[in-house]
Amino acid sequence: MTEDEFDAFYAAAFPRLTGQLYAFTGDLGEAQDVVQEAFVRAWDRRHRLLADEAPEAWIRTVAMRLAVSRWRRARRWLELVRRTPPPESTPGPGPDRTALVTALRQLPEAQRMAIVLHHLCDLSVEQVASETGAPVGTVKARLSRGRAALARHLAVDEAEEPAWRESGRVG
C-alpha cells in the first residue's frame, strides 16, 4: 500500500472504525485514541496491509486490544488505590528544616549546590567537583564559604527564635 493509498484508506476507514470502537468502549475520546494508535501501528506495516486483504479488520482488532489493555490497566490501578488507603496525615517540615531551607536559599547558587550535594546527598568533594564541573579546590572554597554564610544566617534565626517559641505562637 503506497502512502497515497494509505491516506485514502485512513480517510475512509477512520470514521467507521471510530464509530465501531465508540460502541465498544462507550467513550468517543477513548475510541478516537485507540483507533488513531492502531493506524499509527499500521503505518509501519502499510506495505503488508494490502497483502493481508483485510486491513480494516487488522486495525479494528488492534484498536480493540488497545482498548481492553487500557481497561485492564485502569482496573488494576483502581484496585491498587482501593487497597492502599491514604495516610492519615502527612506532617509538614519542622522548624529546623524550614530554617535550613530559608538559609540555603540566601546562598549563591554555586555554594548552595556544593552544600546540598556534599552534606545532604553525601557526595565526596571529588564527586561534587565531578558533578558540577568545578575544580576540587573551588568546591572546597564554596563549601567553606557556604558553611560560614549558613552559620551566620542560622545564628540570626536562633536569636529570633525564643520570642515565638516562648509564646507558642508564630507571627
Q: How would you describe what is shown here?
A:
- The chain is built from eight helices and no strands.
- With 171 residues, the chain is mainly α.
- The N and C termini lie far apart (73 Å).
- It comes from Streptomyces marokkonensis.
- Residues 99-150 form the RNA polymerase sigma factor 70 region 4 type domain.
- Belongs to the sigma-70 factor family. ECF subfamily.
Give the helix proportion (percent range). over 70%
Q: Would you tell me the overall average pLDDT?
A: 84
User: Which residues form runs of ≥5 with pLDDT under 50?
Assistant: 162-171
Into which percentage range does the β-strand content fall?
Answer: under 5%
CATH domain topology of the largest domain: Rna Polymerase Sigma Factor, Chain: A
Q: Mind telling me which CATH architecture of the largest domain this is?
A: Orthogonal Bundle
Number of strand elements:
0
Tell me the number of structural domains: 2
Query: In CATH, what is the class of the largest domain?
Result: Mainly Alpha
InterPro entries: RNA_pol_sigma-70-like, RNA_pol_sigma-70_dom, RNA_pol_sigma-E_actinobac, RNA_pol_sigma70_ECF_CS, RNA_pol_sigma70_r2, RNA_pol_sigma70_r4_t2, RNA_pol_sigma_r2, RNA_pol_sigma_r3/r4-like
Keywords: DNA-binding, Sigma factor, Transcription, Transcription regulation
Protein name: RNA polymerase sigma factor
Family: Belongs to the sigma-70 factor family. ECF subfamily.
